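Study the following:
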Amino acid sequence: MYIERIRAGEESQYAIKRERTEIGRFILSEQGNGVKRLRNLQVDGNVSKAAILYVFELIQQYVEQENIPEIQVKSHSKELDTLLHHQRFQLKDKKEQLWTYYVNC
């Protein structure tokens, strides 16, 4: 799997591809000071739960390569909370359910 930028800008769009076939998309929106928020992550229904973990790892590797200092995710479920915790995200704002991944921490 790999990530391909579809559109650059304050709300950059990306495709997640496996062997040139798109299996998902997401947006990284600018939050200031180089911080990005991961939004609208969507993957095909036939992508396994184990592959979802790999998608998050792939996104984390991508932001490291792009020198993005941190990414944020708003959680909408306990299942996502568990996944984010497993992927070394930290709960930054409990009320807003905002999780942050600090690159190189």
Q: What stands out?
A: The mean pLDDT is 91. The beta strands are 2-7, 11-18, 21-32, 35-43, 70-74, 90-93, 98-102.
